[in-house]
């Protein structure tokens, strides 16, 4: 098991070292940036177990903080490209992660503004012998404010990322893992289902962070499993993915309404909808929360051009 045995995965993952580093650099945790630093080495060991990193992996890490998870990722991956929004953490990261600088690329800025090309360029500059400088895995203790967006956007915009192992607020984990008809199921879950599936999860209590957050957390693993058209078995094209996402948004736009009413309020033609519902066997009176990602793929296909109202 990765991280088991006597040796710590991360020398920073304990309250004493974290306090020492924060004091040395005069850094106070910033609540607005979700700065709750991990102080549990066993949590890091479990994250590494789920990530299953190898020398060919390029890890995309959002929000390295003081480098607690980063120092554990560096020896196991070919390269780690971390994006940190808080510029005052740059000297801290240079100090804590510079020890393995051959594998460490750091970009300072908002991860929401960073694309696959930016990460690949930063990794290329390291000059490491890698099959590709493009990120293969997202492994992060995510800032909770942007966690849900980063998870979906990375799957949408970074096609080489085939696994995500991410710490999120337990509520977000519930939305990610929800199934049709469940309380937490919504447009977000249905859209995520176009790209991947949950293959692991464990819970993490507030005591594993400094300062402790007011919420429960969970680590989830999502493996890329692109949606296919159930009729042809073929993966969806970018146009089909866009059309299906549009149908999902319209179906959930007014989630207390029937799918027919919600979609027609969003501009879909009622007659075209009724034809499509009949062809794929969806009751027009059902609510969107009862339908699976596959149902939405079928519906978008049958609506064809009309799906993009
Ligand atoms: C929950 S802390 C995790 C820190 C560290 N990875 C750990 O496990 O201890 C989240 C980190 O994300 C950073 N952050 C917040 N918003 C960000 C954004 N939009 N882009 C990049 N980093 C961000 C914060 O400054 C903070 O360092």
Automatic annotation (TrEMBL):
Top-level enzyme category: transferase
TM annotation in the entry: none
InterPro entries: KsgA/Erm, rRNA_Ade_diMease-like_C, rRNA_Ade_Mease_Trfase_CS, rRNA_Ade_methylase_Trfase_N, rRNA_adenine_dimethylase, SAM-dependent_MTases_sf
Reaction(s) this enzyme catalyzes, per UniProt: adenosine(1518)/adenosine(1519) in 16S rRNA + 4 S-adenosyl-L-methionine = N(6)-dimethyladenosine(1518)/N(6)-dimethyladenosine(1519) in 16S rRNA + 4 S-adenosyl-L-homocysteine + 4 H(+)
A GO CC annotation given for this chain: cytosol
PANTHER family linked to this entry: DIMETHYLADENOSINE TRANSFERASE, DIMETHYLADENOSINE TRANSFERASE-RELATED
Record protein name field: Ribosomal RNA small subunit methyltransferase A
Organism placement in taxonomy: Bacteria, Bacillati, Actinomycetota, Coriobacteriia, Coriobacteriales
């Amino acid at each position: 098991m990765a991280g088991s045995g006597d040796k710590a995965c991360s020398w920073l993952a304990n309250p004493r070292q974290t306090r020492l580093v924060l004091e040395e650099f005069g850094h106070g945790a910033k609540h607005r940036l979700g700065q709750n630093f991990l102080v549990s080495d066993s949590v890091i060991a479990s994250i590494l177990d789920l990530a299953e990193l190898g020398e060919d992996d390029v890890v995309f890490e959002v929000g390295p903080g003081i480098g607690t998870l980063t120092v554990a990722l560096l020896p196991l991956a070919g390269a780690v490209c971390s994006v940190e929004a808080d510029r005052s953490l740059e000297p801290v990261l240079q100090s804590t992660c510079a020890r393995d600088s051959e594998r460490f690329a750091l970009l300072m800025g908002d991860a929401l503004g960073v694309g696959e090309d930016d990460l690949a360029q930063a990794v290329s500059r390291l000059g490491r012998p890698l099959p590709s400088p493009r990120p293969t895995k997202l492994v992060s203790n995510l800032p909770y404010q942007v966690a849900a967006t980063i998870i979906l956007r990375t799957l949408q915009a970074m096609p080489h990322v085939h696994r995500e192992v991410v710490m999120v607020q337990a509520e977000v984990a519930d939305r990610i893992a929800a199934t049709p008809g469940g309380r937490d199921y919504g447009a977000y879950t249905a859209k995520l289902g176009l790209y991947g599936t949950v293959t692991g999860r464990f819970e993490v209590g507030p005591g594993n962070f400094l300062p402790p957050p007011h919420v429960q957390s969970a680590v989830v693993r999502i493996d890329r499993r692109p949606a296919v058209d159930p009729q042809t078995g073929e993966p969806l094209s970018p146009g089909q993915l866009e059309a299906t996402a549009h149908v999902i948004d319209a179906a959930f736009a007014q989630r207390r309404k029937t799918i027919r009413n919600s979609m027609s309020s969003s501009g879909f033609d009622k007659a075209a909808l009724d034809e499509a519902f009949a062809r794929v066997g969806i009751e027009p009176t059902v609510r969107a929360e009862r339908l699976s990602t596959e149902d939405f793929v079928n519906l978008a296909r049958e609506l064809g051009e009309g799906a993009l109202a």
